[in-house]
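Final report, closing paragraph on structural work. Over the funding period we assembled a curated collection of sequence-structure pairs, and we close with a single example.
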Amino acid sequence: MKKLIVVSDWVQDSMSCQEYRTTVEGFLKEPSYVPVTFVSSAPSTIHTSFLLNQVIETEERFGRPQETVVFQNTDPRFEKEEENNTVKGAEFLILRLKTGIFVCGPNAEYDFSLIKNKIEELYHYQSIHHETQFRSRDIYARICAHLMDEMEDELELEEGPSDIIPELRGYFVGHIDCYGNIKTTITRESLKGKYESDDIITITINNVKRKARFVNGLFSGKLGELIIYPGSSGSKDNPYLEISVWTHFKDKDYMTGEYFFNKPKVGSDIHLV
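Its predicted structure, as stored:
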């Protein structure tokens, strides 16, 4: 049986996690052990995309990709502003990545954007009848269980092109970790030829403008200095940049990256000058 990793905006609710785990267990051939773990996202498809990409990067580098299924379920329906008696969400997709990982979930906004270049095959799954959002989640559990049991051939799948997944253009706050470090969607390669080490970059996030020094790592900066540097997320050869401060958390008035920008939300735009 393959393991399952769930990335979703409902994961922060422990009851939802237990309900989903039980539903998956009910569809598995041998439910004596259900290898399911959960990663909590904000209700932001950019945040989910960032987390999804990082989970997959780690699985591909250190895990067992061909024994892994990843399910993302963030569909905030931001495009719907008027009252609507139907609750049908984004189209459900099943992706097989080049390393053999199966990824599935609704194709809402940017959920799959940061893994688009990893896709080997993309499939539409049309046999989902939405009733409510959580009913959909229960139906998704059955699909995940089939993928865990390697029963994908029994699903009625229709192959399609990956260009239905939108590109994520621009720079954004991808994630803010427990230390207040701002993990961005800016890659080191995207700044090549534009900035050199020790250059001062003006960064605007959350309508707050700050100056940060471009350095090689968190501890390359001075204590208390705002810096931007290649972080621990993204590709090993082309990591995402982080914005933060080398700080002593024992100090009474310590500052972190998120505090410099008044605690921005994940998914916020980032502008560099």
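The mean pLDDT is 90. The longest helix spans residues 45-62. We thank the funder for supporting this effort.
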